[in-house]
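Summary for the steering committee. One of the milestones for this cycle was to obtain a three-dimensional model of the protein with magnesium ion bound, which we needed before selecting residues for the alanine scan. The sequence and ligand used are listed below.
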Amino acid sequence: MNNDLLLKIDELKVSIGDRNILKGLNLEINEGETHIIMGPNGAGKSTLGNVLMGHPEYKIDSGNIYFNGEDINGLSVDERAKRGLFLSFQYPEEISGVTVENFLRTSKMAVTGENVPILEFQKQLKEKMDLLQIPEEYKERYLNVGFSGGEKKKNEILQMAILDPKLAILDETDSGLDVDAIKVIYEGIKILKEGKKSFLVITHYNKILDYLAPDFVHILVDGKIVETGSADLANRIEELGYENFKK
Amino acid sequence: MLKNYRAQNIKEYEMLPNPYWKRINEEILFPEKVLDYNKDIIAEKNFDNVMDVDEELCFKYIKYLELDRNYGLGEKFLRFSEGLSNTGLFIDIEAGDKGNRARIDLNIDSENPILVDHNLIICRENSELDIFINYEDDKKTNGFHNGFTKIYVEKGAKLNLYKIQNYSQEIQHFDSSVIFVDEDAEVNIIDVQLGSKLKGVNYDVGLKGDRSFCDIKNVYLGTDKDKMDFNYDINFLGRNSKGYVESVGALTDKAWKVFRSTENFIKGCKKSEGSAKEYVILLNKDVKSHAIPALFCTEDDVIGDHAASAGQLDGNKMFYLMNRGLDKEAAKILVVESSFVPILEGLPEENMKKTIINLVKDRLGGD
Ligand SMILES: Nc1ncnc2c1ncn2[C@@H]1O[C@H](COP(=O)(O)OP(=O)(O)OP(=O)(O)O)[C@@H](O)[C@H]1O
Ligand SMILES: [Mg+2]
């Protein structure tokens, strides 16, 4: 495994309004690693994803985020995307009037800053759609409009596959999916990992362990990572519940 | 006496004061002198019965030209077109004649800076007509357009009207249409208003016949210090008549907009149904947006509905799009595009939709 440090979060404190949500969070992710974050509802998992991505609503009170050695605190959302960060939404937005295909090509060009020839793009899109078992007609549909919960999640992974980020943060991509869909998504992700891509996977299910071999499992409770371990930790949570991990 | 049609209107026009539009704080100034307009406005047509307007024709069609009350943007605008028009068309489609199409260019340039049109469109029984009107200019002429169109759609006839107003900000644009729809007749309108620094657009529809139908869709854009007033009135008279208005717009910079719609259900129009919807995206906090929907009923047995809403850019939507690499401007434009597309899909040609989307991008990207 390549051990180049990709993401470093240093004593991160984040608030929204006058509520403190992240309360001194530390995390390091190397290139090619898969990290899993588990934790009770409201612990701050989605907040972490949003803050990494630069959501303007959240305020960083102290601490730093380095991506590829660069302090990214001051960067806008799209600048982070261009540097290789990607967040798969827990609740993806619907954008009517813009087809999946057009949107993906637009965003691919935006992220890479290069023209993407249409034929080459279509080939790539077909490949990834096949991999994720998304029927071809979905590329002509408006982005997420009228998609079922599971279809939206698959579409997030499709976007990830096309945009090819360095670090993909998946926020409960596996919630609301039937067992077959979970399998397709995680097997897809496995193929997409391609060695160097890193993942930060937020989940409530240890089903993921069947497909992805995580390098680390973290438990986030009340704005802090309270325990870090190997895949085995996810199984212990299943048995013990989060209560036993609270400080 | 007949020769007096225009003279009489000019006289009335001259006596009327300049309108003051208090909602957008603007006194409308008319050109002191109406110069000749020397452009051919018919770009394409596949039928014959189009006539240039003259006195004789006005006499022949007097019962269509003289209306029972004042419609449109207001008397001064109407009399101006009726008395001083420098171009215009009378179109009279014969009964049962279908597949008629015309493209009309109401363009302004430095040689033809003032455009005053007065039009009459009659679709006789069971006829069909599609009209496309484009409004363009040379982008360097301080110009003025005032139009007044009277439209009669007789029993069982169908009219589709598509307007794309893409004037530059040098132009003032005023457009009044009055439409009478008879039994089983149908009118569909898509009106795209992209440009012009000061514009007033007014539709007044009389759903006279039983089962008459009218659908008006509008998209608009306001940038810089544009001021605009849109008014849609639908009068329901026939039974089972249906009238719908839908307007979607985006405002940025310091643009001002007023949207009015009145659904007027008149006694006897039983089982009629109407709705007026307006949605505007406010891209900037300095914009001003008023919506004044109204509903009047003297008939109980109807369904009337109206909704107006204005929204800032949705923060989560923006976050989502920017997360996929789009910068703020591009994300903003995509949100606007996304709100316009459902209406633009009603255009009969795919490339019209594309053209309009590109114009919207240009106009929004330019700031
Ligand atoms: N925009 C917001 N406004 C107010 N409070 C917020 C906002 N976003 C998050 N919070 C609060 O911050 C806390 C953490 O929320 P977050 O969404 O990060 O939790 P989570 O760990 O992802 O939970 P879940 O497992 O339910 O998805 C919650 O108490 C939530 O109510
Ligand atoms: Mg969450």
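Key point for the committee: Residues A 45-46, 90, 171-172 surround magnesium ion (ligand 2) (CB under 6 Å).
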